[in-house]
Amino acid sequence: xxxxxxxxxxxxxxxxxxxxxxxxxxxxxxxxxxxxxxxxxxxxxxxxxxxxxxxxxxxxxxxxxxxxxxxxxxxxxxxxxxxxxxxxxxxxxxxxxxxxxxxxxxxxxxxxxxxxxxxxxxxxxxxxxxxxxxxxxxxxxxxxxxxxxxxxxxxxxxxxxxxxxxxxxxxxxxxxxxxxxxxxxxxxxxxxxxxxxxxxxxxxxxxxxxxxxxxxxxxxxxxxxxxxxxxxxxxxxxxxxxxxxxxxxxxxxxxxxxxxxxxxxxxxxxxxxxxxxxxxxxxxxxxxxxxxxxxxxxxxxxxxxxxxxxxxxxxxxxxxxxxxxxxxxxxxxxxxxxxxxxxxxxxxxxxxxxxxxxxxxxxxxxxxxxxxxxxxxxxxxxxx
Length: 384
Hints:
- By secondary structure, the chain is of the alpha/beta class.
- It has helices at 14-28, 45-51, 70-75, 78-91, 101-114, 130-139, 148-157, 191-198, 219-232, 247-256, 272-278, 293-300, 313-316, 331-343, 345-362, 365-382; strands at residues 2-6, 34-39, 55-58, 95-99, 118-122, 142-145, 165-167, 205-210, 236-241, 263-267, 281-284, 305-308, 324-326.
- The protein has a seven-stranded parallel beta sheet with strand order 3-2-1-4-5-6-7, sandwiched between helices.
- Helix 13 links the parallel strand 12 and strand 13 (324-326).
- The two termini are 14 Å apart.
């Protein structure tokens, strides 16, 4: 089955990583699903897709702006729709997969003109206004959402669409994050090796996060929590893995707090599993999330986790069993939870082991790929 996956965004965040992971799993498992990605020429996912031999078609998708009216946005769709329609007719997919709301708006008219079913795959809780959202739900052949909280939002708006909306959780390759996994030529750094690279003592305790450095991730609250902990513990250092538009602002705040020797910005890393191995506790201070992939990666790494109570985090973590869930923006609660896990290493180890077992049972990439293939097949059958 050939599918064309449309990605409107240029960033390489959780939704784009999830798309890439899914297509890689289709390849690895020989599922019979062959996918290509249609994306902007400057999309950050292109070099990552090229590494794995995933076909990309570079196409300017046209502007979509929330602040503009419906008429303006529809006018912007004419030329991009014609370009995408040519790609679709040349590629002849059984299904078009739209990775997110903007990608759906960028591809739905080409799908309708080509009479090809379209699957809308939604990763976010922040969506267009109700009027256009109702229309989008109606236009989609099938809808996949990554958490129950998004499904509830959609069903409340359009109850009759209940049957075509499926929750399929994002998954991770659990083995990739195993402490003992062999990686061939890729060197797996030990914790001490990475600590030396960071210029930290081998006895350092590390609190880390893996996140795009963007406002909705709440990374400023990670920095404020770091400042609180640093006043009480001389042995604790802080590692931020990821990049984004807030990096300069966050680095400035670190300087203001005189934490330059205690906080490290690692930037975007392909070897997230190595970075997670360094962390004694992982803190996710989200302000808005649906079903964050980074939490699953930390769970698969058997790390003790503190995360804020937003979106589908409670669908991932069981509070008090596989991690600790705290209110968003509550720096005091984050500080207390992290300090307790640093103090009680045994409790952290138990949390981590339970988290890894939960990921293996409920959130594996293989499970996700099987479920997604079934949705694609259902959409294709409905158009025959």
